[in-house]
Amino acid sequence: MLGLATELGADSLVFIELRYQCEDMFGVKVSDDNFTPENFRNCNALADFVMKRLCMQVVS
User: Fold this and answer.
1) C-alpha angle with apex 20: 27 to 17, nearest 5 degrees?
2) What is the pLDDT of residues 13-32, one digit of tens each?
3) Direct distance between the N- and C-terminal alpha carbons of the chain, in angstroms, rounded to an integer
4) How many CA atoms lie within 13 A of 35 on its CB side?
5) Three-state SS string across 2-59, please?
6) pTM higher than 0.90 for the full model?
């Protein structure tokens, strides 16, 4: 399966910007522990991560 890095040529700076955009747009805190290749490997993985974090905020 291709991911953001291979499909879009995203480098480390793109992933850092994506992290901050998720925090800003969705109000989701992305800790260093959660800033992993698994959570940011493709759009589906990132959407799943954001949805899980949002659900956790609602439950808390």
Assistant:
1) 150
2) 888 999 999 999 999 999 99
3) 34
4) 17
5) CCHHHHHCCCHHHHHHHHHHHHHHHCCCCCCCCCCCCCCCCHHHHHHHHHHHHHHHHH
6) no
pLDDT > 60? residue 1: no
Number of domains within the chain: 1
Q: Which residues constitute the domain of residue 21?
A: 4-59
Amino acid making up residue 39: N
Integer Cα distance of 50 and 52 in angstroms: 5
pLDDT-derived band at 6 (thresholds 50, 70, 90) equals confident
Chain CA centroid to CA 41, Å: 8
**Does residue 35 have a pLDDT over 90?**
yes
* Structure tokens that stand for 26 in this block: 């969705």
